[in-house]
Amino acid sequence: MPRPEANQTVRLDVDRAAGTSAIRISFTDQRLTAHGGLIVWSHFLHQKRFRAELAQRLPHAPTSPNAYVPTDIALGYVGGILAGADKLSRVAWLQNDPAIAEVLGIEAVASQSTFSRFFSAFGFQSCEELAELHAWALRGLPSSARPSEGYTLDLDSWALLHEDGHQQGVAVGYTRRGLKPCHRPLIAALAEPKMIAGYALRSGNTACVNGATEFLRQTLRRLPAQVRVGLVRGDSGFGDAGVQQAAEDLGLKFIFVARLTRPVQSLCRHEDTHGQPTEVAGIDVQETQAMRPGRRLVLIRQRIAERPQAGGKRLLDVPAYKFQALVTNLPVSTDALGVWRRYNGRADIENRIKELGAQFGIKGLCCQSFWATEATHHLAIVAYNLCVLLQRRLGQLQRCELGTLRWRLFARAAVWSRARGKPTLRLAVRGLESRSWWMQILEKLGAPPNCHAVDCLAA
Description:
By secondary structure, the protein is of the alpha+beta class. It has a domain at 125-358: Transposase Inhibitor Protein From Tn5, Chain A, domain 1 (Alpha-Beta Complex), CATH 3.90.350.10. Helix content is 34%, strand content 21%. It contains 15 helices and 18 strands. It has helices at residues 38-48, 50-55, 70-83, 88-92, 100-104, 112-120, 124-137, 212-222, 241-249, 262-265, 336-344, 349-358, 370-393, 402-410, 432-446, and strands at 10-16, 19-25, 31-33, 151-157, 160-161, 171-175, 178-183, 186-190, 195-200, 229-234, 253-258, 276-277, 283-288, 296-303, 313-314, 321-328, 414-419, 422-427. Strands 4, 8, 9, 10, 11, 12, 13, 14, 15 and 16 form a 10-stranded mixed sheet that branches. A hairpin with a 5-residue loop joins β12 (276-277) and β13 (283-288). α7 packs parallel to α13 (370-393). The two termini are 48 Å apart.
């Protein structure tokens, strides 16, 4: 195929309301990027001194003069995630963007084979080092969102489906779609700032509770000193007596979904004068006798006629209701209704899981090596936490998802050049209102960290 020349032109027809028109297609040597807005991200990483922190967590140094610096490979990978890539091959495709490396402050975006070699060098110890970055991201949080109670830590696990099923750690396990090959990671999130505090990848045939006790201990050990956890919440997968005891040994209050064993089912009844109605029609709560001293058991009863979508278990003896049970060690000053209200917020961790899977690429990031897969996930989660901190830095009052950040901020076309020898990035922004919005962003980013600006990303 002949090489196209700079002045070569092709005409393509386009249908318009007024009739057919032709558009001339030619080529340019200008260094254009579709992701010029990532310069905001790169400057924020500079302010956080992230490159130096990341360099301490990577497992190896370059082996030849021509090799990429490991931090450049990792930063290119994170930049690809923010640009929308969910596989290493799609991150590598950013090599076709002639200015993205300059915007990210790296030598170049690595190829797929380079990414594969880079991540294959990770093992258990180097993944443990990467996990420390989650706690590093939490250092900027205030002492507590509620000083008298501390932060709330939510635990969960979920299935990452991998239909081909040949990678290390991919095994057949229970999923919402039946028995499927998958990984089954554990995740811990701080509810108030909506940030991830811990993550651990596990084989797909692992039970929810396996390793949960040690995972909880490791997550708390890594937390910065000023981040005090006052309450731990988890679903029925974490209702095991060992996890409860570990939480108590660590001095934590907890609320876990209790399994509806036969002794618990025997306590589930029809309408009872001792039940407390909630603000949600069709839901009543009642505290009853727990199986162990120091524990409280709260039964949640949902009338199916009023709440056909209700979760929980339906019992043959009480067909008109679905039941759930909560076990807690909160003091009696928090009544049954208060326990139910404090547990309700745990469902928000599902939004973190969905965003990490769909927008930060974790669903599609699966390498042959188990530890390589965990390393890709850790870096994607670091990107998530830093996106939360970036929004706090910009004065964002309500956190938005990566998709919003991408379309409003990161995915901004720009021209890279050297005006009088100085690197220059010209963002493609039209209109005084849009340029004023961007100037607010840039000025806020350059202001001292304690300067609070308007909620500019929601504008």
